[in-house]
Design brief:
Elements: H1 7-19, H2 23-27, E1 30-37, E2 48-50, H3 52-59, H4 62-65, E3 66-70, E4 75-78, E5 84-95, E6 101-113, E7 116-124
Parallel strand pairs: 1-7
Antiparallel strand pairs: 1-2, 3-5, 4-5, 5-6, 6-7
Amino acid sequence: MSAPTSPADLYRHSLRLLLDKDIPAWVALWTEGGLMEFPFAPEGWPRRLEGKEAIAAYMRHYPDHIDLHDFPDLRIHQTTDPGTIVVEMRGVGRLVESDAPFDMTYIAVVTVRDGHITSYRDYWNPLAVQEPSADFTRSSR
């Protein structure tokens, strides 16, 4: 696939990589100094990840805990900044350890510069991760 040319295309490509469980390729979409923020993160979860290394470490075990199947209801909104989009979506799948269904609603504000993600503010629902098997941030694998 050729490199995505717009923030919306890059974002759609990033979702495909998550569904394919290709975390290294997903991380490669980021700039070295990328910033990922989780304003609604519950106690004990990170609220801010600075740099590609921190983002990679955070995401490394994601597929071991959450098996994503689809991102239905995807809506991407353009903003007055051509490099920034606002995304509304759901992520559905299952929690690997318990086999319980996973269904999370997200709103994200994503900024892309020169074909790479520079900033990602993820407004996800912390109530959806109350099951211990959803916590991939503390993986021992």
